[in-house]
Backbone:
């Protein structure tokens, strides 16, 4: 069995391997041929960094957003035996930095993306561009402490919170092996039982271990991050860069791995600051923490594995 923890850690590596093996990305084929992107920071206690993709009126200054920035390349070096100069700015995206948004008689529907643990806001960038080319405005939230790299507008760079995740940020092979063996043992037990009741009990055990590893705290914290951002959307629809361009009553959300758990939590609330219409969980495990009730999404919800 392939350890899911290993897959999570290798996700950035696999992304880079794909980037380094090609000289171009295929063009987006939606009705909107030019895609813009912009990065901004929320004025809130967490100082969340958000990147947006949207249909653009023109290419602006004509500068394409690199798939991997200098700061992100430096962080990736921890995963790859390769120099950062071979990563940074090697491959541009299809998105023009700060290009003006395409005027529209009706505002664009909104999609919110939530990255996985050790992911970052650009991890699913080609999906963001595909959505933008089809008439959506996509906002991707970077969660500091769970993202492998957070780059702030002032140039400050942070990574995984090693104090919160001492076991998940283990530096020695012995530590990483012990973590992997524990996870593998539990996942193997799930495959060997037949009854749903037994599987639920094993998942509770698995979730309790994750709780010890302090994963429930960031899931709750990230859920609040998303709600705080949702609360800003009505104001953003009236003022600033996205004024008149976003429809806060037509909102979808999707997330990967831990971001999928957050998406499930958001979809299960029943009340939101904006009009949430649908949600998708990409590869997020169903975590049942001791004392928690099983929640049911209150909007159309898809799980993709």
Residues:
């Amino acid at each position: 069995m392939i350890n899911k923890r290993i897959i999570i850690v290798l996700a950035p590596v696999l992304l880079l391997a794909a980037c380094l093996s090609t000289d171009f990305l295929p063009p987006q084929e939606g009705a909107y041929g030019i895609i813009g992107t912009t990065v901004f920071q929320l004025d809130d206690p967490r100082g969340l960094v958000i990147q947006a993709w949207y249909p653009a009126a023109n290419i602006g200054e004509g500068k394409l957003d690199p798939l991997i920035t200098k700061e992100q390349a430096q962080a990736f070096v921890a995963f790859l035996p390769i120099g950062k100069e071979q990563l940074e700015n090697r491959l541009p995206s299809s998105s023009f930095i700060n290009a003006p948004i395409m005027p529209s008689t009706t505002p664009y529907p909104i999609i919110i993306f939530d990255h996985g643990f050790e992911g970052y806001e650009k991890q699913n960038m080609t999906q963001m561009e595909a959505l933008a080319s089809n008439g959506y405005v996509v906002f991707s939230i970077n969660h500091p402490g769970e993202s492998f790299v957070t780059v702030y507008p002032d140039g400050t760079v942070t990574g995984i919170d090693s104090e919160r995740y001492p076991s998940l940020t283990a530096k020695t092979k012995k530590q990483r092996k012990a973590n992997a063996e524990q996870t593998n043992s539990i996942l193997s037990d799930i495959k060997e039982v037949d009854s749903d009741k037994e599987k639920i009990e094993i998942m509770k055990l698995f979730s309790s271990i994750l709780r010890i590893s302090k994963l429930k705290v960031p899931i709750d914290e990230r859920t609040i991050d998303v709600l705080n951002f949702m609360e800003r959307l009505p104001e953003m629809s009236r003022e600033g860069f996205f004024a008149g361009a976003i429809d806060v009553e037509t909102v979808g959300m999707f997330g990967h791995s831990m971001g999928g758990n957050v998406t499930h939590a958001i979809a299960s609330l029943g009340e939101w600051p904006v009009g949430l219409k649908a949600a998708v969980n990409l590869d997020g495990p169903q975590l049942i923490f001791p004392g928690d009730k099983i929640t049911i999404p209150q909007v159309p919800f898809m799980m993709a594995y």
Notes: Residues 1-10 have pLDDT under 50 and may be disordered. The radius of gyration is 20 Å. Helices lie at 4-20, 70-76, 125-133, 173-192, 196-212, 216-238, 258-267.
